[in-house]
Write a structure and sequence with these properties.
Blueprint (H helix, E strand, L loop, with lengths): L1 H10 L4 E17 L2 E21 L2 E12 L5 H17 L1 E3 L8 E3 L7 H22 L2 E18 L4 E18 L4 E9 L4 H20 L1 E2 L8 E4 L2 H12 L2 H4 L24 E4 L21 E5 L2 E2 L6 H6 L10 E4 L6 H4 L4 E12 L5 E12 L4 E5 L2 E5 H4 L4 E2 L3 E4 L2 E4 L1 E4 L3 E3 L3
Parallel strand pairs: 5-7, 9-17, 10-15, 14-21
Antiparallel strand pairs: 1-2, 1-6, 2-3, 3-4, 6-7, 7-8, 10-22, 11-12, 11-14, 12-13, 15-16, 16-17, 16-18, 18-23, 19-22, 20-21
């Protein structure tokens, strides 16, 4: 298929192109109660084609278009797809930038066999049964996926990169309280076969589901600091990482320069240290190269609360006069000076789970609806639900306190919790 696609590009006069191939080998199992069944194996391939059309007059602008190409496309279908992309690229013009030239690199490690993929399913299902017995919950049903992707990047300059990436997904419905019939829905992504990571994540969500049964409405009129935990912490830190993205700083009136504070003037809380890393254990977002074929490496983007380096696509790095850094998905954030027990000093509201938590990129306004939290008034600590928290990052970023305890969730490794003040709290009564 690759040779057929490249020949089609040459025949249609496309001189600059990139092809990303993703070959996926996967195994799937369904756990019905305690019975493992419906084991299935599959192999799929997909292709992403991106073409570039320079201006006839020189290096002033560049046309770009991309599309997914079916692995089973016929010659006629390939010709139609390439011609359509060429027509689109004639209209979608951007300032010129050079294509990365990454040479030839092979980042592959041991390739998983079908037996390896099935072994992951059996390990995870066995772990679920053990955990259900020890934590006293019943697995209604679960779906477990284990995959390995062989990803390759080719381009018209002759670069050829390839890597294999293992990942897994667990979707679990468990009855956590037979008295009330309460069911817990768990969705977990993982990479590798880390039993402790899977077990701890499942147990944490089971305990949270049981706490919801006892939760009372969030009291009205609360005025106290708010502690957020994952995944809200992940989204909070992702906001700061995006502030260092070259695309967000190119031509922006709010652009930051290296050395500028990202936490306002004279911050009194913990200072941010954020590093982007290509590969992170248990992260399905790990990759040694990005969509443009840029080879990735560790990049510290924020140090002691100040912008240290930009990061981002080859296109926008070029616009800022930088060598391409690439798009790196894994975020590593340093912990704070104080343990979670200090952050919990009352009065405070600790939100464990939001129904929805969002941050508006431009204004930094954030809001979340409380699904489960704990309110401490100095006399007791009780589970609460309902109501909301809201605020602006510009108001809280200088006073943030990070827990010294570190936790990983997906592509994020950093503080378990972050204490925010001032934040508006709406009651749930």
């Amino acid at each position: 298929m690759i040779d057929k696609l490249i020949n089609c590009l040459r025949e249609r006069g496309i001189d600059i192109w990139q092809i990303r191939e993703n070959g996926i080998s996967s195994a799937e199992a369904f756990l019905n109660g305690s019975k493992l069944e419906m084991l299935r194996l599959s192999d799929l391939s997909s292709f992403n084609l991106k073409i570039f059309k320079p201006a006839a007059s020189g290096e002033k602008d560049l046309g770009i278009a991309q599309a997914e190409i079916s692995a089973g496309a016929t010659n006629d279908e390939l010709i139609r797809a390439v011609d359509q992309l060429a027509a689109t690229a004639d209209q979608a013009r951007v300032p010129w930038f050079p294509m990365p030239d990454s040479g030839t690199r092979d980042f592959r490690i041991k390739t998983a066999t079908d037996a390896d993929l099935l072994s992951v399913l059996e390990t995870v299902s066995g772990l679920l049964k053990e955990t259900a017995a020890s934590e006293d919950f019943f697995v209604n049903h679960a779906e477990i996926f284990s995959t390995q992707s062989l990803v390759s990047h080719r381009d018209s300059s002759g670069s050829f990169l390839q890597q294999n990436i293992g990942s897994g997904i667990l979707e679990l419905a468990a009855e956590v309280c037979s008295r009330t019939g309460t069911e817990c829905q768990i969705y977990l992504t993982f990479s590798g076969n880390d039993k402790d990571f899977i077990r701890n994540t499942v147990c944490e969500q089971i305990k949270a589901s049981r706490a919801k049964i006892q939760a009372v409405p969030t009291p009205a009129g609360l005025k106290c600091p708010v502690i957020i935990t994952r995944p809200a912490v992940t989204r909070f830190m992702d906001y700061f990482a995006r502030r260092a993205d070259a695309a967000c700083n190119y031509g922006s009136s709010q652009a930051l320069r290296p050395g500028d504070s990202i936490q306002g003037q004279d911050p009194r809380g913990d200072l941010l240290d954020i590093e982007l890393i290509p590969c992170l254990e248990n992260s399905s977002y790990s990759s040694w190269f990005d969509q443009d074929g840029v080879i990735l490496k560790k990049t510290r983007i924020i140090e002691q609360g100040k912008l240290k380096n930009y990061w981002g696509s080859a296109q926008y790095c070029h616009y800022l006069g930088l060598e391409p850094v690439g798009r790196i998905e894994n975020i590593l954030v340093s912990g704070g000076k104080h343990p979670l027990s200090v952050l919990r000093q009352p009065p405070c509201l600790e939100v464990h789970e939001f129904s929805a938590f969002f941050i508006i990129p431009g204004s930094g306004y954030f809001q979340g609806e409380i699904r489960l939290g704990w309110y401490s008034d100095g006399k007791s600590r009780s589970a609460v639900t309902g109501g909301s928290v809201s605020g602006r990052i510009s108001d809280v970023c200088g006073n943030m306190l990070f827990s010294s305890e570190i936790l990983q969730s997906g592509c994020f490794r950093g503080p378990v919790a972050v204490r925010l003040d001032p934040v508006s709290i709406g009651g749930g009564g």
